[in-house]
Hints:
about 75% helix; mainly alpha
Amino acid sequence: MNLALKTDNSQYEKGSIRNAVSFALNSAAAQARLRYKHYADICKTFEKKHKLTSAKFMEEFDAGTLGDEQEFFDWYAAARGLNLWRERYEILSGVSV
């Protein structure tokens, strides 16, 4: 996939624009990595406690076989966050300017 950046109407030089966009992408990738790690740590805590991977937990939670404990909803939210931020990190870290 190629992305285009329109700079025809900009008063800034292309090198400055490239640097600014590169900085923004790198910052966003770093933020996504931190959030991914945060959710990974939360999931690891639940996995150790329940001796179940987050992927297997999600399957069982979605099937309704685990119950309605608040902890399970917290784990579900953390697992969803983990998947979301992993995807965003992978996408952002793969973009080059």
